[in-house]
Specification:
The complex is a heterodimer of chains A (257) and B (270). By secondary structure, chain A is α/β, with parallel strands linked by helices. Chain A has one domain (6-255): P-loop containing nucleotide triphosphate hydrolases (Rossmann fold, 3-Layer(aba) Sandwich). Chain A has eleven helices and ten strands. A six-stranded mixed β-sheet of chain A has the order 6-7-8-3-9-10, with helices on both faces. In chain A, strands 2-1-4-5 form a four-stranded antiparallel β-sheet, with helices on one face. In chain A, helix 4 (98-108) packs across helix 5. Chain A starts with 5 loop residues before the first strand and ends with a helix. Chain B is mostly helical and 270 residues long. Chain B has two domains: 19-137 and 231-253, no CATH class; 139-222, no CATH class. Chain B contains twelve helices and two strands. In chain B, a hairpin with a 2-residue loop joins strand 1 (100-104) and strand 2 (107-110). In chain B, helix 5 packs antiparallel against helix 7. Chain B starts with a helix and ends with a helix. Classes of the chains: A alpha/beta (257), B mainly alpha (270). The A-B interface holds A 50, 53, 55, 76, 79-80, 82-84, 86, 88, 90-92, 94-97, 100, 103-105, 107-109, 112, 116, 134-139, 152-153, 156 and B 12, 15-16, 19, 138-140, 160-161, 163-165, 167-168, 209, 212-213, 215-223, 227-230.
């Protein structure tokens, strides 16, 4: 199946003020992969994500989503294929009730009546938020907002899920719940995050961005073993791979038979 | 600033009331909006010296508060907040209009006092009716109802988005204001001049948020037309509600029920 592919080739983006946020980025993500894009603040992660559903247009380079190259004509189709979950759920939940918000995408796709209701209820149930349907977004807690934001995207049945800092600002329980939920998805998934422990759990593959370029692209566990590389990119090993402060042993080593 | 946060919580309470599940809450918002409209028009169309005929109109907010299970004290406090404004409007009437209209024993009450009282009573009635409408219907549903009644879609969408982001903006404003206060150590800080940049920052942040919200809308297939669900049903209960209230208001507008009641009671005792 080629329709879940994300291919980026020599992508370059210069903001109007002259800042080159992306210099030369190339990668190819295939069907069903779960990939983390990590890097320091200002490395270009968010700029890259905004290209994936065509909100920003490349200064040069190409993006291919599924069978289509990203351009003006394919934009509606691509926005349907790529479900984008933004960093601040308050930006994503703009309708008066949770139900209306989840229905916003499907309504734009032309659904109505029982189909619409089924689609909305299913998306809300999928993230365990069925009971929140009638609530207003500003009455929800942070974790609930995050899950509803994911439901708003799921209701459009996207093939590719793109999430900007999904665990940002969640308490440990809500974070664990969200990781459990994301693990179950079979979509092609692309995350950006500073929560490297989450990356370790969810993503087999990691791409490190540094100064607008791909500095490393490979198996997550191998990349996180390379301390010199991590330090160079202003990152560090996830806590679960660091030595235990009491016994001095690394958790991943202690777990090994 | 505690007051901004407090005001927000208070506002959220009003919003929560609309989530109730009484028979009134379930009515089609259009019926409620229209009934309130007839009420307001009836109340404001009285002559300026009319006072006694206004009193029976209190039955409308009272019945809705009772049937809608609303907290009367809370709503009364909200209405009381607006009374000073109504008083400011009618304040000078007693000064300019000194012709005595009613003689109560030795005390002569001038037309000015009566018209001033009439203004306050009308303000309490109309503001009360509007608040009660919001409390049993919810602001977004009222916007939807107005849209169905012919208000342009763009206005409805603007009002709905405005209402949604008032909460976010107030929270942001509250945080910024608290940060300013914590660093001014009980003094005035830089006084008024520090509010300029603060408001400027809020405006810029709002701008950036608007861009992000637009981005989120585009990402979900928004093409310029705001689609809404057709969920309203104007059935027999709505018709009864609207016709019942509207005929009562028109009756009360045409006949002074207080006088009728007075005449009835004095008639019995004669």
């Amino acid at each position: 199946m080629s329709h879940h592919i994300v291919a980026v080739k020599n992508l370059r983006h210069v903001y109007p003020d002259g800042t080159a946020a992306l210099r030369d980025v190339s990668f190819r993500i295939t069907h069903g992969e779960s990939v983390a894009i990590i890097g320091a603040n200002g490395a270009g992660k968010s700029t890259l994500l905004l290209h994936l559903n065509g909100y920003l247009t490349p200064s040069s380079g190409e993006i291919q989503i599924g069978d289509f190259p990203l351009n003006k004509c394919t934009l509606p189709q691509i926005r349907r294929t790529v479900g984008m979950v933004f960093q601040d759920p308050d930006d994503q939940l703009f309708m008066p009730t949770v139900y209306d918000d989840v229905a916003f995408g499907p309504l734009n796709l032309g659904l109505s009546g029982a189909d619409l209701d089924h689609c909305v209820t299913e998306a809300l149930e999928r993230v365990g938020a069925g009971h929140l349907a009638k609530k207003a977004p500003y009455h929800l807690s942070g974790g609930e907002k995050r899950r509803v934001a994911i439901a708003t995207v799921l209701s459009m049945s996207p093939d590719i899920l793109v999430m900007d800092e999904p665990t940002n600002g969640l308490d440990p329980y809500a974070r664990r719940q969200l990781i459990g939920l994301l693990k179950d998805f079979r979509h092609t998934r692309i995350f950006t995050s500073h929560d490297l422990d989450m990356v370790l759990e969810l993503c087999e593959r990691t791409i490190i961005l540094k100064d607008g370029e791909v500095r490393a692209d490979g198996v997550t566990r191998e990349i996180f073993q390379d301390e010199a590389l991590l330090a160079e990119c202003r990152l560090e090993k996830p806590l679960s791979m660091q030595g235990c402060p009491v016994c001095g042993q690394s958790r991943s080593l202690a777990k090994a038979p | 600033m505690a007051s901004i946060d407090g005001a927000l919580l208070d506002f959220k309470r009003l919003d929560r009331l609309a989530a109730g599940n009484t028979a009134l809450h379930r009515l089609d918002p259009r019926a409620k909006v229209l009934a309130t409209l007839v009420f307001i028009v009836s109340v404001v169309s009285f002559g300026r010296y009319e006072l006694s005929a206004l009193i029976p109109f209190f039955i409308f907010p009272a019945v809705i508060i009772g049937m809608g299970d609303l907290p009367a004290g809370y709503l009364a406090r909200k209405i009381a907040l607006l009374c000073p404004f109504a008083l400011a409007v009618g304040m000078f009437n007693p000064v300019f209009d000194t012709a005595v209209m009613v003689q109560v024993g030795p005390l002569g009450i001038s037309g000015g006092w009566i018209s001033c009282a009439s203004i306050v009573v009308r303000a309490v009635l109309t503001v009360g009716a509007a608040l009660v409408l919001v409390a049993v219907t919810g602001f977004p549903a009222i916007c939807r109802a107005m849209e169905h009644l012919g208000m342009p879609n763009a206005f409805a969408v603007q009002l709905i988005l405005l209402y949604r982001y008032i909460f976010v903006l107030t929270e942001e404003g509250g945080r910024a204001s608290r940060a300013r206060e914590l660093r001014s150590f009980g003094k005035k800080g830089l006084g008024l001049s520090s509010y300029g940049p603060l408001l400027g920052t809020l405006l810029l942040r709002t701008w950036m948020r608007a861009e992000r919200v637009h981005m989120a809308m585009l990402a979900r297939g928004f093409t310029g037309a705001f689609q809404t669900r057709q969920e309203f049903r104007f059935g027999a209960p709505e018709m009864c509600y609207l016709l019942g209230w509207a005929s009562l208001f028109i009756f009360l507008r045409l006949h002074n029920a207080t006088q009728l009641l007075g005449a009835l009671i004095t008639g019995i005792f004669q």
